[in-house]
Amino acid sequence: MNDPQGRYANQPVLTCPGPDGRPVAYLSRRLLPDPAAMTIAGVAALQPGERLDSFSARVQGVATAWWRIADAHRVIDPRELEDPALQLLKVPVPEAGGGSGA
Fold this sequence. Notes:
Structural class: alpha+beta
């Protein structure tokens, strides 16, 4: 149900009763980590027109790890980081457990 390398990797699976009374599983709420507590591997330039997933693939080797970069900038919507004014983006070191501590 949960990607072991994804941003919800460390979140517990909870249940609540569905309309028919049977339990419905869901992942608990994920709070954004404090960027000041993250270890930054470096800073890299976002190319004009580059999407955050493409940037992540280029600098981290994994397109689906774009959320780590978003966490380092404390944004929820990745499109905020694709703004041409943001030419340099912080690239955090992945933390143990795959979930970047979140």
